[in-house]
Design a protein that fits this description.
2 copies of one chain form a homodimer. Chain A is of the alpha+beta class. Chain A has a single domain, classed as Alpha-Beta Plaits, CATH 3.30.70. Helix content of chain A is 34%, strand content 36%. Chain A has 3 helices and 4 strands. In chain A, strands 2-3-1-4 form a 4-stranded antiparallel sheet. In chain A, strand 2 and strand 3 form a beta hairpin. Chain A starts with a strand and ends with a strand. In chain A, 19% of the residues are buried. The mean pLDDT of chain A is 98. Chains A and B meet through strand 1, strand 2, strand 3 and strand 4 of A and strand 1, strand 2, strand 3 and strand 4 of B.
Chain lengths: 96, 96
Amino acid sequence: MIRHTVVFTLKHEAGSSKERDFLEAARQLATIATVEKFEQLRQVSPKCDYTFGFSMEFADQAAYDFYNDHPLHRDFVENRWMKEVSAFQEIDYLPL
Amino acid sequence: MIRHTVVFTLKHEAGSSKERDFLEAARQLATIATVEKFEQLRQVSPKCDYTFGFSMEFADQAAYDFYNDHPLHRDFVENRWMKEVSAFQEIDYLPL
């Protein structure tokens, strides 16, 4: 299992329709066949500056690669993520 | 549900007995009554500099506070975490 996470901040105002639209569009990523346990999260630690998070799991590296290369993911990164996210950090985990 | 995560790097050499001992000691945190789904993880994204992660869940803020204030946690932070961790980032999540 590989858990892919990203914690991020949007350029949009908190609670705005643009914020809601971005998050709704991102839910399309969950329809990619190899994506498991897709979650949209709110980051709430005062010790961390980011405001949202996504988390998903893949069975193995091939499943992760399938997601990365999928047209839905590529389109989302190019047309939404790169335009609407102001800062982010990817963190990927394997069970220890 | 509150998911408490921390991604971190140890001062110890990778694969060392000191590294193993730190991780083993941290598993005591899972015995605190309000801790759910305790996980020890290896951070593997080349886009992230940290090497390990812990993740755990709490039913609510009271359960999280119970953990934070618990002697086992306080002792671990003071005697292990502050001495053996070189860098870390806490990230806490609520379901969106």
